[in-house]
## 1
Amino acid sequence: MKKLLQVDFDFNGPFADEMTDALSELAASINNEPGLIWKIWTESETSQLAGGIYLFDNEANAKAYLAMHSARLTAMGLSNIRGRIFDVNMALTSINQGPIAK
Amino acid sequence: MKKLLQVDFDFNGPFADEMTDALSELAASINNEPGLIWKIWTESETSQLAGGIYLFDNEANAKAYLAMHSARLTAMGLSNIRGRIFDVNMALTSINQGPIAK
């Protein structure tokens, strides 16, 4: 069953285009992570936060990615890393046009 | 500019099909909220959490929805409500097939 992984952490930049320049190689590498279907990259200069919303093909792959990614973020000096793995309620999501194929 | 709203809160059910039955009318009403593009409904019986990932057309609509929804959840007796509004880094999201049209 597909799982949604929600991650955020304290972040003081770079944001926007500079974030893109700094992290495009990392983004490309994420396509090679087992079970990744997609990632939405989130950022807030106002709140000094960044993170991601991920869809994985199953729970084991979501858990493995979260463990690896948390360690990587910690190694980058980032803190207050919060990761949560959720089921998607597909019936309710379909009512609201959520972009997740069955 | 589109904004992503991430919400979660403590939740002890109903989950899965029973959640669908309980909340389908609420889901239908959410389609009428100003600026809503989509919502992904999240739930975790394991973690005793539920929430949603929303895409809105702009920040004012995301903020207004978060204020209204937080009050509604509180009135339903739910607690530890956490809402965060993010920009989407479109370039990085495109690299990872994130389902957000430009």
Note: Strands of chain B lie at 3-10, 36-44, 49-56, 82-88.
## 2
Amino acid sequence: MQVFENGVVELEHVKLLEATNDEHGGVIVEMEEPMAPQAFATVLTASMLHWKHQGKRGVWIKLPINLVNLVETAVKAGFWYHHAEPNYLMLVYWIPETANTLPANASHRVGVGAIVLNDKREVLLLVVVEIFPDWGVSSSHGEKSGKFQAIGLWKIPTGIVDEGEDILKAAMREVKEETGIDTEFLEILAFRQSHKSFFGKSSLFFICMLRPLSFDIQKQEQEIEAAQWMPLEEYAAQPFVQKTRLLKYTTELCLAKTNKSYTGFLPHPTTSIFGNRPGYLYLNSQDLSLSNCDD
Amino acid sequence: MQVFENGVVELEHVKLLEATNDEHGGVIVEMEEPMAPQAFATVLTASMLHWKHQGKRGVWIKLPINLVNLVETAVKAGFWYHHAEPNYLMLVYWIPETANTLPANASHRVGVGAIVLNDKREVLLLVVVEIFPDWGVSSSHGEKSGKFQAIGLWKIPTGIVDEGEDILKAAMREVKEETGIDTEFLEILAFRQSHKSFFGKSSLFFICMLRPLSFDIQKQEQEIEAAQWMPLEEYAAQPFVQKTRLLKYTTELCLAKTNKSYTGFLPHPTTSIFGNRPGYLYLNSQDLSLSNCDD
């Protein structure tokens, strides 16, 4: 077998794409070097025949964005899109006659809201400059004049959980980034699932309880207009909070928590069933104490 | 303004792409009709100038897979990938000089495991034919012979939560699909977050408790080899369950639940802060009773 620089291997005088086996009877091709679309079409056709002969199942082709000129060739060969990130596109093909068992694409964004409560029953709140477009009158040319309106509202720190990031770490990170406050993660009080957050994707939002380890607020980001410790009762009494059920419930959870009459889910480090992939199991540990979760 | 069939509009003799405004000061172009790449390049350049002049921010281009020949043109114009589904690719561009505030791509797959317990303290279990490749010795030609091994293990029904699907509905659906049993959703006992489930994406797995509404098992899917009601203690005593912490914890949760000494999170229908986007808020309702969650 001869291996060429551009990721092509030659097998009995037939050039094939270099591929690695995945754990499910399929192959993964990670294209890295530029190739002319016609040359890619030829080597892809030969490779597909080879993999079919081998009894392979799913075929994955990862194309970095700089090899965008090969996307059309792959689609013409029968591949379809599986997922994409800013710098690459993953295409896939299923060789067997049977229905495919390919893993589904990621379907949910995950967000966190951090309730940081100090010993004086004060909660850490922010005013964020949020931008809402206020579309003007459409002109006869179809143009729209937009003016942007900044509204202020005292709210808890929130943010998005990054791919590969633990929920508890995301909550602590967001608080630190937005206010400079160091925290200890306590528990998840509740969470909410909703749909169509953007382009059909769903979302999960975790309401977390944290204990502050520092107290001097230092605003860290441009979009934050103000940050302060506010007495919990004062926050809860705000008209906007009172009339917005989701915010009202959040403050009720928080009040119940401070009265020690509410138990949420605590994180326990665990590995997966086959011993790999560390992660956290969140459960009601007041009702069920698990001795040393990890091996 | 003149509108052409292929989604191009003419504005003061300059052809532009037809776009709709999004809620964040950007525009969305949904390409539907075929166009030559060169024509697309020309109209895209003119459109970008127009949107920049208008003070637009994010520009989204949704290309169905049959318009794959336009992907390269968009990337050459500075667009990058945002996300993809089997039948389309979403590209994006950020016009302002400031850092982009575009929404992140979905980062998590969401799964459910369903503990269905009947009045006789029996739990609904399955044997699934799971396929693990057992790679043979690599030949001198780089070929690998694969043989597939089927292993059996009594497990609870599990599955993936579809985009746009409620967790509680996914749990009930999986049980119905796999065993024919109708159920009522009770609560979420615990959940686990882990990472790198495939291609860098993270996953959330919710362990749900359900009550059966019917009792005659009817296997529904090919990959299910057997299904039965098994006494909970017998299931918990299996060596594989005992030595696998995550399964052991699950059975402990289940035993605690049957002894009425464990409270998980119950779903409450709620709308989002601005009154739209229905969803479910999951919380410990034994500790905090929320009157009529929805307006």
Note: Confidence is low (pLDDT under 50) at residues 131-151 of chain A.
